[in-house]
Every structure is written in structure tokens, then in C-alpha cells.
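Researcher: I'm preparing a figure for a lab meeting and need a structural model of a single chain. I don't have an experimental structure, so a prediction will have to do for now. The sequence is pasted below. Please return the structure as C-alpha cells so I can convert it later.
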Amino acid sequence: MTVRDYYVYILTNHSGTLYIGVTSDLTRRLAEHKLGVVEGFTKRYRLKRLVYFEQTSDVHAALAREKQLKGWTRRRKAALIRSTNPDWSDLGADW
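Model: Understood. Here is the structure written out cell by cell.
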């Protein structure tokens, strides 16, 4: 059986809007966000800067973590991002 990785990630834009998602292919999904190929919230608000992500091999854990993070206040999400990415740099800039 092949082990697959899953990613919970946070995107932002120039005005600081946050989006939390989950995917099994972070590189592909980030490219989709950056190119705006999928209609919806991320395209409408131009959420293209990857500022945080976590990796797990458990899809259920990834989905639970996504739900947990979505329930957090903006202040708590910002603190999580700053804990590993204090400058809110685009972690996917070179992908």
C-alpha cells in the first residue's frame, strides 16, 4: 500500500485575508490557486501566497486539523503562522 501525504495549508493575499485548505498535492494545488483556475473564494480574493502548511500521512487527521484551524480566531491563526513564518513570506514562491 502506498502512503500518501496530505497537507493543511493557509493562503493569504495583499490585504491579509486568510484561506485554509487541505490537499494531497500541495504543489499542484498551489499552482491552481496562483493561476486562478478554480472559481471561488481564493480566486475572487486573489489568495496566492502560501504562508503556512502542515503535512501528515493521515487523511482524517488532515481534515480534522483543517476544521480545527477554521474554528480558530484570526488572532490565533496569525500567531500560528508567525510561529514558523514570522515575515509571512510566500513559502511556495519558488515552486
